[in-house]
């Protein structure tokens, strides 16, 4: 008998090709939250560069095959459903997933994901902004048992309360330790001078800021927290941490006027190169105002 299910599904974007890494991640999430898994395949009818023309019947057949494969992988305790949507890859999947607990994509969809999150500000971008996303590298699989930490990359500690709260919850759900990683540096030629004169004090200030944000977030949850503050650029530190992490958690900026939902160069590089799944969470400090979004969109017309 299946357990009682949460109504919020784990959504998995179905590509043309291997889906197993994303399904393995979805299976772990479904086991934690006792929720269904929904496979969503987006298609655009017309000629294909790598095969026969794309048709609705062909897309429906691909989705049916993916659902059967997922049922075999996830077993009888997880409800698996399929949804066929018409439109651009990833963008259409996100548009159909407003109620999803999380949307899981494989790394091959990364360029489509960047396009979906950085397009012009419009109603669709507003709907996509609050959706948590996970990008899973090809061939990924987690060891069992997995005692590696969850690592969250923190840019400005004073603006990271919601990101840290969500990361503590992720660690608590998985019984995992949490590593909070913060890097700092200054533009040349000032960086060497600042490091020499106040480097230790700066790191102590940053650590204290993170501790102050964390203090009310995890009492009683039993989450072990390690704060890693280091001098240097963020990308090498995040990729080094990813090699020994269960998950990397990053904040995703919300809607910035007419600029769309932004992914900075560090986030893009981590998504492309991290050997573990990368969780992208919306940043509440840049919350979406739908009315302002509509006005901005109208102003471009």
Describe the protein's architecture and organization:
The chain is α/β, with parallel strands linked by helices and 301 residues long. The protein has two domains: 10-136, Rossmann fold (3-Layer(aba) Sandwich), CATH 3.40.50.620; 150-300, Rossmann fold (3-Layer(aba) Sandwich), CATH 3.40.50.620. It contains ten helices and twelve strands. It has helices spanning 20-33, 56-74, 91-95, 110-118, 123-128, 161-174, 190-214, 234-242, 265-273, 290-300; strands at residues 10-13, 37-43, 46-48, 51-54, 80-86, 102-106, 133-136, 150-153, 178-184, 225-231, 247-252, 278-282. The strands form two sheets. The protein has a ten-stranded mixed sheet, sandwiched between helices. A two-stranded antiparallel sheet has the order 3-4. Strand 1, helix 1 (20-33) and strand 2 (37-43) form a beta-alpha-beta unit. Helix 8 runs parallel beside helix 9 (265-273). It is globular, with a radius of gyration of 20 Å.
Number of strand segments: 12
Radius of gyration: 20 Å
Which structural category do the helix and sheet elements fall into? Answer: alpha/beta
Q: What's the helical proportion of residues?
A: 40-55%
